[in-house]
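Quick entry between incubations.
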Amino acid sequence: EDQVTQSPEALRLQEGESSSLNCSYTVSGLRGLFWYRQDPGKGPEFLFTLYSAGEEKEKERLKATLTKKESFLHITAPKPEDSATYLCAVQVGGSYIPTFGRGTSLIVHP
Amino acid sequence: SQTIHQWPATLVQPVGSPLSLECTVEGTSNPNLYWYRQAAGRGLQLLFYSVGIGQISSEVPQNLSASRPQDRQFILSSKKLLLSDSGFYLCAREILSGAYNEQFFGPGTRLTVL
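Done. Structure below.
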């Protein structure tokens, strides 16, 4: 049973078309939730860590938010260079080992 | 610098051949290190992690093994590769950020077993 579920699996946007990616989790005792960006053939690149419900973090066109059951990665006015797979992972208290979702593949068309 | 190096970048091996993938890290001593495998259409699967020299924990039974001969070196090995060992292998290190631990990944090794 997946503890971390990302949706949608794939998303196609036009340049400038804002949208959100979802990461829902069923673990208890959340220690941290992480977002990564992964380009084809490369290792995941760290984006954000969120620790508590209500927390928000921003980086350029990306904004990550966290509730008690899910996190959203909002992409505002995306550009083609934002195309990548976005991974979410959760870390539970008592363990430093994160559990990863399967990712959302984002394609932004010019 | 907390850079992570992985070698080789790509590898094509026949079934039954041995394997050795290397991960070396720079920066802080005694890092926690991890090996993940990423197969097409699947998430990241944790294979091994190490909290110090000679200390290896395995997450899943498999055809692979890991070793940590030096503080900043983590090696993934196999005596005989299977077709199912194909995938993208990622080494990660844990970095303490305030009171929390965050993972950072290396560039990966693409392994194709034929």
